[in-house]
Amino acid sequence: MNWMRALPLLIALTGSSLSWAIDLQPNDIVAPPPDRNLITLSYLNTENSTFYKNGSINSRPPNASPVIDTQSLILRGATTYTMGDLPAVTYIQLPYGIVKPAGSLSNLPSDTGVGDFTLATAVWPYANKTTRTYVGVAGYLITPTGSYSSQKAFNVSENRFRADLQIGFQTPITSSLDGMIAVDTMWFGGNSQCGLACGNASTNSSLTQKPLTTTQLGPIYRINQIFTVGASYFYVAGGATTINNAYQNNVVNTQRFLLSGQAHTPIGRLSLQYGRDMEIKNGYAQTRLLILRLMKDI
To answer: Pairing between strand 86-103 and 111-114?
Structure first.
């Protein structure tokens, strides 16, 4: 089937969550006080559509009018403490979601189930509350514990380990306005059971991927003690894939934006984020990213 030749880009460029960067919310780079236990419940909704190949729209089958819908509920538990004299936080996270192809991809099966388990720790080598200046370093380990089938092009899990290292910096610009910048690089383990997503319906292929680097920066504006808003620009680069030692020539080169709003309420911190791709070189363009979160002390 000729349309299967396009499928290696499904996993290689969209993945299970359709977003690999470690997106930050406003003030995520601010060091937290120690001895807090927090729980966060998130709802994530994305839509990806038009398929790009080396900067140009590619509408050959099966990508005449592709749609990929993803919805996830994500449960996160976190604890804050001090590591020596440094502020630190560790969290564990587990998603449950559905990936549903539609449009010209509607003949492909959807997948529903538990996603990949994440363990993360962040430490602040510099945190000055008086000057509102912070430098944080975080490490993430994502494990292949979720739902996966080599006979599906789209899966909730990626069936491979991923590790990410991120460094962030935040400092004031005015009395109510801060600026932040963060850079992270994600490394990918191999997937030796990449079947349909790598263009092979009957046999498994070996998928490997180069590291993917994301830079995000933008302003954070505190309206008052309750409301905070922010905007972020992202540049994502790298991540080319190889299938059975054959280079796929599919370097990720994506620009996108994310708008954020937060409210401190009696039931916890509510946050809403909305974003989308602005420019993409390879893969399915993200036309909608919507995230709703509630975080509270327990």
So the answer is: antiparallel
